[in-house]
Every structure is written in structure tokens, then in C-alpha cells.
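User: Structure please.
Assistant: Input sequence and predicted structure:
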Amino acid sequence: MITVIIVMAIVIGGGWFIWGRRGRSSAASATPLGATPENLAFEAFTHGNSCLAAGQFAEATASFQRARELDPKRPHVTERLAEVARRQEATDLLPPAGAAS
């Protein structure tokens, strides 16, 4: 279980780092508010990661879909949507807390 958590942290961190590096390359064309589609997509992506970590699957899905709409070239978004689905399915398969075995 610890290994899975560590691998997930590495994948999330790597995706965040790569996304951020690509977002900065287009910063020269950004408005003073930084409201380019790429920046907005990055914000939605990071919000989705936060929601996923908190177990807020519906909010995470909405954020990742928003990121995909804003910047459809990013392959990480599709991977994160698949991760939301996997975690939500795993959570649905767990018995409720306090249920008799």
C-alpha cells in the first residue's frame, strides 16, 4: 500500500512538473492576469489533483474535464480522469465502515 502511495505521489508530482514547465514556455503571450487557456487548464488540473487526493471524485472529474476542454493537448488529463474512475470504483467496492464481516 505504501508503494502505491509513493508511486502515485511521483506520478502526480512528475505530471505537475511537466505541465508547469510547458505552461511557462507560453508565458510570453500571457495577459497580465495570466489568464491564458494553458494557465487556466493548469489551475483546473492542480485543483483536480487536490480534489482527488481528498476523495472528492465528482469535483476532481469536473476539474479534469475543464482542464481537457481548455487544453486538449495534455495527455496527463486523460490519465488523471482514468485514475479518478479507478479510485472511485475501488471506494465503491469497499464495505461501509462498521459493517459486519
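The helical segments are 2-25, 37-53, 57-70, 75-93.
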